[in-house]
C-alpha cells in the first residue's frame, strides 16, 4: 500500500507540473521531455546521475542539464563544484530536495535536510547560491525560447559559511574582501534567484533561506510576460534586502500578459537593511510594479524598515500577520502605514482585502542568537527613530518575544552586530509552525 501511495504522489505531482505549462506558448527548445537526475552527497559518485549511481553534487552535472529535467537531491551539505558556493542553471528545471539516501522519503526541514552552502575563500564565487535564468535562451531560428516551468522545492540555503565576518566572530558581516587574510566579501546576492522566460511559470516552495546579504531578495522570483509565480510555504530568516522579492520582467500594458503571483503561507523574519546606516532594504517582502499578486496567510516580522514594500503592484491581501516591524507595516512609495490603516489608506490594494492584523508573537529561535539580536546597537539610531511612524517595541518587549528573562537595563555587546550568524539548528524552530494559520509550516513527509 505504501508503494502505491508513493506512486500516486509522484503521478499527482507530474500531472500538476504538466498542467502548469502553457503548451501553446512553449517553444520547441523548451518542449523537451526531460529526464530524472539524482544527487547524493553521501552516496554519490560520477556523473551518471541515476538513482542507482547518483552524482555527488548538483554543480557536477549542471553542464548535462536539459530543459525540463528533474533533479532529486538527497540529504547532506552541498557546496557546489570545487566548493565554489554557487550554482547557475540556464534552462528550465525542477529541483526537489530533502530526500533520504534511497530517494523514497522526503522530509526537507527535519530528518533529511538538503543544505546548500559554501566557504569563504578568496576569489570564490559570490553569485546567488541557486541562480536559474532562462530568459536568454534561444531557438535555432534566433528567437528567444519561451514557456515551460521552473520549480525549486525543499532546499535550505545557508550563506553563513560564505560570509566574511568582522574578526571572524560571526557577529557582523563585511562587504569588502580581505586579500591579506584571503577572504572573500560577503556575497551581495540572494539565496534563490530565478529569472524566467516569457510564459514561464515559476514555483518556489518549502525552502529556507538564511544568512544571505543581498540588496534585493533572499528569495527573488522574476516573472515575464504571460508567466505566473507561486511562492509558497517558505521561511526566510536573518537576511538583508528583502526576505521575499516578487519581480516583473514585463513592461507592457496588455492585461493578459501581466505577471501574476500567488504568495501564501510564508514566514519572513529579521530582515536587515543593506548596511547599518542604509536607508534601503530591511523589508520582509517587496513587490515590483506592473504585476498582480494574491498575498495570503503570510507572516512579515521584524523588518528593520518594514513588513511589506509595494512599489506599485496590484495586491489582494488576506489574513497576513505583521509583527515588530520598525518603521511601518506596509509602504507604497512614500506612504508608510501601520497594519490597522492599510485597508483605509492603501492605493494599490484590492477592496476585498481583509483579515490582516498586527500581533506580538513568541519566536522560537535559540537563546544564544536571541541574546545577540536583542543586544545589538544600531549606528545613528536617533536619526533612524526620527522617521519612525510605527512605534518600536521596547527592549523588554523584544526579549519577551524570544521568551528571554526581562532585564532592567540594556544588554551591552562589545562588538558591532550586523547580520550575526544564525545556524540552521537555531533558526528552523521558528519556522516549523504557523501562528493562527499564518506563516509557513514544516513540510509533511512525502515523496515526489
UniProtKB/TrEMBL annotation:
Compositional bias segments (type: Basic residues): 167-178
Domain of life: Bacteria
Leader peptide range in chain numbering: 1-23
Gene3D superfamilies according to UniProt: Single-stranded right-handed beta-helix, Pectin lyase-like
Protein's UniProt keywords contain Signal: yes
Region feature (Disordered): 167-192
Name of the protein this chain belongs to: Right handed beta helix region
Native organism: Dokdonia pacifica
Amino acid at each position: 500500500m505504501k508503494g502505491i501511495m508513493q506512486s500516486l504522489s509522484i503521478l499527482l505531482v507530474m500531472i500538476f507540473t504538466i498542467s502548469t505549462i502553457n503548451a501553446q506558448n512553449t517553444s520547441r527548445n523548451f518542449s523537451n521531455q526531460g529526464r530524472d537526475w539524482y544527487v547524493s552527497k553521501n552516496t554519490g559518485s560520477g556523473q551518471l546521475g541515476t538513482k542507482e549511481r547518483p552524482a555527488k553534487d548538483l554543480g557536477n552535472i549542471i553542464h548535462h542539464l536539459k530543459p525540463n529535467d528533474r533533479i532529486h537531491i538527497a540529504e547532506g551539505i552541498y557546496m557546489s563544484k570545487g566548493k565554489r558556493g554557487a550554482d547557475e542553471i540556464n534552462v528550465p528545471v525542477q529541483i526537489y530536495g530533502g530526500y533520504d539516501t534511497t530517494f523514497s522519503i522526503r522530509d526537507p526541514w527535519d530528518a533529511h535536510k538538503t543544505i546548500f552552502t559554501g566557504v569563504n575563500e578568496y576569489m570564490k564565487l559570490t553569485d546567488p547560491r541557486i541562480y536559474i535564468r532562462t530568459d536568454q535562451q534561444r531557438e535555432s531560428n534566433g528567437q528567444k525560447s519561451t514557456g515551460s516551468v521552473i520549480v525549486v522545492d525543499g532546499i535550505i540555503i545557508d550563506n553563513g559559511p560564505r560570509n566574511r565576518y568582522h574578526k571572524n566572530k560571526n557577529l557582523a558581516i563585511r562587504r569588502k574582501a580581505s586579500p591579506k587574510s584571503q577572504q572573500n566579501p560577503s556575497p551581495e546576492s540572494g539565496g534563490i534567484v530565478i529569472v524566467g522566460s516569457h510564459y514561464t511559470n515559476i514555483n518556489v516552495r518549502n525552502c529556507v533561506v538564511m544568512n544571505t546579504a543581498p540588496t534585493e531578495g533572499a528569495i527573488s522570483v522574476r516573472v515575464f510576460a504571460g508567466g505566473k509565480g507561486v511562492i509558497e510555504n517558505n521561511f526566510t530568516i536573518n537576511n538583508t534586502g528583502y526576505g521575499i522579492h516578487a519581480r516583473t520582467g514585463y513592461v507592457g500594458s496588455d492585461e493578459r500578459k501581466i505577471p501574476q503571483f500567488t504568495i501564501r503561507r510564508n514566514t519572513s523574519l529579521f530582515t536587515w537593511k543593506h548596511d547599518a546606516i542604509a536607508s534601503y532594504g530591511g523589508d520582509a517582502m517587496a513587490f515590483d510594479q506592473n504585476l498582480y499578486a494574491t498575498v495570503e496567510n503570510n507572516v512579515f516580522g521584524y523588518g528593520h524598515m518594514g513588513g511589506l514594500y509595494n512599489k506599485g503592484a496590484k495586491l489582494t491581501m488576506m489574513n497576513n500577520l505583521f509583527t515588530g516591524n520598525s518603521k511601518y507595516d506596509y509602504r507604497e512609495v512614500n506612504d508608510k502605514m501601520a497594519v490597522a490603516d492599510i485597508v483605509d489608506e492603501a492605493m494599490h490594494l484590492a477592496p476585498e482585502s481583509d483579515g490582516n492584523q498586527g500581533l506580538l508573537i513568541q519566536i522560537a529561535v535559540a537563546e544564544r542568537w536571541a541574546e545577540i539580536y536583542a543586544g545589538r546597537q544600531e549606528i545613528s539610531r536617533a536619526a533612524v527613530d526620527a522617521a519612525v511612524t510605527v512605534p518600536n517595541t521596547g527592549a523588554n518587549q523584544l526579549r519577551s518575544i524570544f521568551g528571554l528573562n526581562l532585564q532592567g537595563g540594556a544588554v551591552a555587546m562589545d562588538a558591532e552586530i550586523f547580520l550575526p550568524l544564525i545556524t540552521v539548528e537555531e533558526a528552523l524552530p521558528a519556522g516549523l509552525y504557523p501562528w493562527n494559520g499564518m506563516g509557513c509550516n514544516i513540510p509533511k513527509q512525502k515523496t515526489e
